[in-house]
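Q: Hi! First time doing this. I have a protein sequence and I read that you can turn it into a structure. Is that right? Here it is:
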Amino acid sequence: MPLFSKPKDVVVQPEPTKANGKGAATPKRSQQVARNQRPLVPTDRKEAKKESREQMAKLREEQRLGFERGDERYLPARDKGEVKRYVRDYVDARLSVAMLMIPAMIVVIILTFFESMDVRLIANVVLWAFIAVAVLDCLLLSFLVKRRITAKFGPGKTKGVAWYASMRAAQLPFMRMPKPQVKLFNFPE
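A: Yes, that's right. Below is the predicted 3D structure, encoded as structure tokens:
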């Protein structure tokens, strides 16, 4: 038996291949460029335009749904942040006089079609009284929201929250964007 030869009965086990992708030679730059190369101008312009439109429509729909859900990634700058989320939740949990402003104005518009001057006058007075109560309600809401924000997040975080809360309170709940995330009277802590 030769000194440096392998025994005939030993089976050589193949080396296990590595699962992480290493072990192959790095491709040359020209091969990488050729693999990533695609035409600058599509072969079928109409098809490319249609595909681009579909992608944009899908992206817009995704953004719209994310905005409705209140997903932080899709919110505009005015709605982003934990302070604004807290304000939204507080306003959505509260029953506000201002949210009834639009239905009240519709009723007044209908009442102005009556021929009776008394009905028109009463409708106008009731509307102005309703507007005054709604403004007072928004002022109270602004005060309460600022106080709660200062207590929860500290001073200096109340910039713009009063107007934000008032404008959200003036909308009917089903018209608010992002959609309300809390039930009525379920105030955030």
